[in-house]
Amino acid sequence: MSETCILSETDERGVATLTLNRPEKHNAMNAALMTEMRRAIAELGADDNVRAVVLTGAGKSFCAGGDLNWMKDQQQKDRAGRIAESRQLASMLAELNALPKPVIGRINGAAYGGGVGMASACDITIATEEARFGLTEVRLGLIPATISPYVIARIGEANARRVFLNARLFDAAFAREIGLVGKVVPASDLDDAVEEEISLILNCAPGAVARAKALIDYVSRHHGEDNYIYTADRLADAWETAEAREGIEAFLNKGRPSWRQ
Q: What are phi and psi of 60, to 5 degrees?
């Protein structure tokens, strides 16, 4: 029987939990995990009942990066095969990054290589004090290429130089220092910290949240006149939505909009 690499469960509030489910392999990524992850992301993105997504790992680790057997397979492929497999990972990260729901990374343990990439593609990241991190590709003669757009966007060029070039292993406090994670808590407080973020999201209009996420993506990649035009247009669009009409009316009349939980 083939393993189920991704578990997906949505509660009555519309909070979905995606769990990397290869605990015996420290949730290392292989082709099956990436395929299942892409399918789950597509399903959650299309489900209007989903308000937020929590990404975490089963067992003691978040994600240990690439699976050893998967890496051996890459070694046997020709150049075209390696590029195709790299694009599978690139597509998974791009789709996670663009998921039109806020994604909370529940970093419950070690995150290396591709695990750091997945954490970087989350909107909010919370790690336990025990979590450990590293981008160790250069030790193997490789580079953290596919994950680099998301990691560099998260920690910046200067900090990328600190951790890409020397395969440094670092703890959660250092991850917080360089901006890889937003908050570090004891393991016993992890669920409460995630729930605090969820409760804030559930007080916000889901369509507006999705549009705000798209706004961040566009503005971060453009400058000057492009942003001037884009942001004015998007704000005008927002004023014309049913959510804005409901939200403003509720605010003025001290009411409660339908999305607030």
A: -90, -15
